Amino acid sequence: GAVVSQHPSRVICKSGTSVKIECRSLDFQATTMFWYRQFPKQSLMLMATSNEGSKATYEQGVEKDKFLINHASLTLSTLTVTSAHPEDSSFYICSARPGGYNSPLHFGNGTRLTVT
Amino acid sequence: AQSVSQHNHHVILSEAASLELGCNYSYGGTVNLFWYVQYPGQHLQLLLKYFSGDPLVKGIKGFEAEFIKSKFSFNLRKPSVQWSDTAEYFCAVYGNNRLAFGKGNQVVVIP
Question: Tens digits of per-residue pLDDT, B83-100?
């Protein structure tokens, strides 16, 4: 079945550095991928919709210059957290559908980011 | 790593019928459990969550879910659905520092 792979699963970085998270659709093409963030004991928050070959659509309140999204191919979207701060520590997860709306939404396993 | 199973991806039922969506997970340790809903054209919203305490959790819009630890299940229920409940429903399990989602149930309620 369709699989979404996310890498790395865990990353620890120092304040001020940048971290890149990859989201790959392994056996299907995804023109659209979604990036979410989860704060402890809270629900997922949609950050942005990643569109292949064009700019991502960011949700209100999400800094596009801080959370850079690149969707350069039909199987890869990347989220780069620039100049990370401890408050950026969170769980980030991506998702994609192999087909139209009627197809299941597949999630990556998520990335635990800790900024020290 | 834990996995989450949701069966019957497509569910079609009539208004006023009862709905039950199954969710089973594989992780044996402490878990936090969630049900999310995605209405057509919208994005994920949290329906309800379980962290501890009463295993019967009540959420928004008349939904409830019951955590049965011995069965590794967290089934979602609604006694009487409405047309507006047409949506996609996702079960998610957080455990061992990982969040895993089921593949979702697409529920269509016929007026």
Answer: 999 999 999 987 776 778
